[in-house]
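Box 3.1 A note on notation
Throughout this textbook, protein chains are presented in two layers. The first layer is the amino acid sequence; the second is a token string describing backbone geometry. Keep the layers aligned when reading.
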Amino acid sequence: MANKRPLSPHLQIYQPQLTSLMSILHRLSGVFLSLGTVVLAYWLIAAASGAEAYQQAQDLLGSFLGLLFLFGWSFALFYHLCNGIRHLFWDIGLGMDIKMVYLSGKLVLLASFVLTALAWWLAL
């Protein structure tokens, strides 16, 4: 006799929502920040190892892929920061109604893009 009970809902049943996507992105940005910290340690070790090692690190990070990684890392940094501040407000009970959750989510994304663009513009 086949089991007639319904299966628990899963990703194939639920439609993606801003809240779930931002939660996943927050976790992924944390992982990406960890990888970026390893790259930062590599760069610092290269700087302490002499001119040749430092130049190799600069060449690697200055390449197209290196700059793409640094751009992604800086976006992850600003996203994780802004979304972390959003969570701090939630921790004290502010902004928990659904309208504010979606508004603050959109503001986090906007602020992340603006701060990333501003940082790169200032670095030029």
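Residues 18-49 form the longest helix (32 residues). The chain has a mean pLDDT of 93.
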